[in-house]
UniProtKB/TrEMBL annotation:
It comes from the Eukaryota. Residues 4-64 form the Dynein heavy chain linker domain. Pfam families: DHC_N2. This is Dynein heavy chain linker domain-containing protein.
Length: 89
């Protein structure tokens, strides 16, 4: 998966640099609505970087579903029916 090739440290440093650069712009530019929008999106991206770290973690990589995994919806439906019947009584 391509996210495994990402260098999170570089992304972290770059986004922090972009945020600092935006804040250093003249006040007339920094006070525009688009600047607020851009800063919010950059902060959201920065806040999402820990998720990418987790995705790179070997323990959290996608696993093949166990055999019989298709029965979960049926068992859930059965459980839901039982709960609804109990609620009506």
């Amino acid at each position: 998966m391509k996210y495994q090739l990402l260098d999170i440290q570089v992304l972290q440093e770059d986004i922090e640099g972009f945020i600092r650069s935006l804040r250093k712009l003249p006040k007339e530019v920094h006070s525009l609505p688009v600047a607020f929008f851009l800063e919010d999106r950059m902060k959201e991206f920065k806040d999402s970087l820990p998720l990418l770290v987790d995705l790179k973690d070997e323990a959290l990589r996608e696993r093949k579903a166990p055999e019989g995994g298709d029965t979960a919806p049926e068992s859930f439906g059965s459980t839901l029916r039982v709960l609804l019947q109990q609620a009506q009584n």
